[in-house]
Amino acid sequence: xxxxxxxxxxxxxxxxxAVAGVGAPLLIRADTGNPSSSATxxxxxxxVVTTKPDTALVSAGVTxxxxxxxxxxxxxxxxxxxxxxxLKAQGIDVKDLQxxxxxxxxxxxxxxxxxxxYTASNSVAATVRDITAIGPVIDAAVAAGANTISGxxxxxxxxxxxxxxxLEEAVAQARLKATALARASGKTLGDIRSVSEGTDxxxxxxxxxxxxxxxxxxxxxxxTDVTANVRVVFALD
Length: 237
Fold this sequence. Notes:
It is a single chain. With 237 residues, the protein is of the alpha+beta class. It folds into three domains: 2-32; 40-50 and 160-201 and 229-236, no CATH class; 55-155, 2-Layer Sandwich (Alpha-Beta Plaits). It has four helices and eight strands. The chain has a five-stranded antiparallel β-sheet with strand order 3-4-2-5-7. Helix 2 (69-89) runs antiparallel to helix 3.
């Protein structure tokens, strides 16, 4: 009899322990917080650095036609050599000259069946570091035989540094916007959770066909903007 009572008492103790064990973990989870789950605010900031361009990229090319492919390429090579020599004579360093395209294409008759000749093309990109020499460089290339010109694309030689400056301004602007939004919503702006860099489109490249016996080419450099965009996520307290 005593043994049976001991067994029942032991069973009751095990059941009570099991019930207590179920409730305790729930209380612990309820008291545990996750700081990373707080509210956040995402804003976009834009930084702009306005500066005067000091470098230009100009492309000069020659297109030649002949009945035979070899003749078209030969005539094109001779003409292009003169253009390159003219660019060098304008003070363009060899390291700032780079061939951009070389092509040879057949020309067909009106029915598009028979080959009647070939067209050869060659163009070179020149980096002009003296901004005042853009017009004379273009004129010299045309006078030497270039019949296609594209550009100029106006940039800054220190564009990487200016872009970093624009990034800093973009983050600062994002913080100002986020502070205003947080205040308006009755919150306090917290630390930065993440920053991601946006992309910026390159300036369009102006193109035109060159002609001989014209007035000196006028170039207005104006100003150029270096723009950076960032998305910043702030914590809200």
